[in-house]
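Handout, section 4.2: multi-component inputs.
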Amino acid sequence: MIKEEVKKLLSAKIKNWEVKNPKRIYFEIDKNDIKEISRALYKDFDMRLSTITGIDNENNFELIYHFSLDKTGEIFSIRIFIIDKNNPEIDSLIDLFKASDWVEREIHELLGIKFIGHPNLKHLLLDDDWPKNSYPLRKDFKNE
Amino acid sequence: MSEKKVIPIGPYHPLQEEPEFFRLIVEGERVTELEIEIGYNHRGIEKIAEAKHWDQVTFAVERICGICSTSHPFAYCLAVEDLLGITVPERANYIRMIIDELQRLHSHLLWLGLAGHFIGYNTVWMWAWKAREPILDLFELICGNRQNYAMMKIGGVRRDIKEEDFPAIKKTIKELYPVLNMFKKVVTDDPVIGKRTKGVGILKKEEGISLAVVGPTARASAIDVDVRRDDAYAFYDNINWSVIVMKEGDIYAKIIVRVLEMLESCSIIEQCLAKISKGEIEVEVRDITPGEGIGRVEAPRGECFHYVRSDGTNRPVRHKIRAPSFVNVPSNIVTVPGYTISDAALTLAAVDPCYCCTERCAVFTNNGQKIFTGEDLVRLSIEKTAKLKKEYGLE
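Output:
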């Protein structure tokens, strides 16, 4: 069982392990561990980063990294909370795999989360003239 | 050392659902670099979904893409059903699969036609689209629309496929087999198509893994992924079919994968029609309880990923959508450079984005003087094929 192996190998870093159903696994980690955990899932378990979901909760930002294990059809969703809403940042995964390039740019422009180490955080979907510090996926965004 | 020139391709074209902008940097005839810009048609559907009722979102996401219009509502419904932990009735699952595979057929035929046009085989274009027409007619028969079928619903399907319509579906599929086999033979036997597509626009397996490409783009590069098998939804695990994988990674492999996949789709539809039995087509869903869910389906272009979260109200708190082209299009950055401009039109089209924008491209020299128009680029590609045809004594 790969999920047991993942759990065992990373047990020191994993919080709130939840197997919602046999194919959907969720767990929480500290934001500083994202690179290390992603490297393990990508290199040791041959997982693929499907996408990253960014959510604006009332008092924090939440990022969910969805890793797909195609051998078994399981999705490992890694949950990270970024408490500092004024200066949200997290390590970029760009030097691990290119798949994180566009999705990190997307989250950066829509939610205003900075990815440290990403070489090209310019706008992906929004216009270059989009007002600064205006992030449309934040809950307090007002469409004027 | 020849002068570096920039060829802008795109962004806008009235026929295209997802405009993209490609900046080809060329030296002489060879492309040395490619830059991609997207976002010209960003409609903010994820944000819109937060303001819609759960059921309305099904219709909103159906409008993300006009070609794979059933994949998004399908993945969204699976995500909500994953959140709720419900299973849908057997008949609904078979209907979902039939619609899903019919859509794959029409989408791949559309792509095959365009690919034929780009290399100057307008007969392939006309034949492929002729074969696609009866499938659109089937959609019209089943759901009243040729596009945007509105079949998917949380808990099942919105309408049944009537028993009296089964013979029409069977007949269309039966008649499609010889056409597909003809295309298979054309692609494998024609030396010019081989010359234009073999060894061109290669995506290496390691590159593909790093880019996390999906669908036919991945499977043509020896990356054996298919959500229908890996994370089997509906009854894909109850049906005999195989995942087509090629190892070359070039455009030829991408064509073969799609052509062979269409034959598999025909077989899947026939098996579904044989297995489907009478029964309910939906379960009633009243409240969406707090929680989260993930749904994904194999769209014609690859894995279509939806994540939803509910706080118990009648609208999603967050709805994340990842369409397959989002991960496939960046692969052009490695597949286009190194080949000629006349191959670029085809390579960019090989991942199957909507690509009508080629008609709007233009070549400028450094002082801004226009030397090529968009039509010229397609003409260049067509001329290359004509030249090859002469070489092979075909004309």
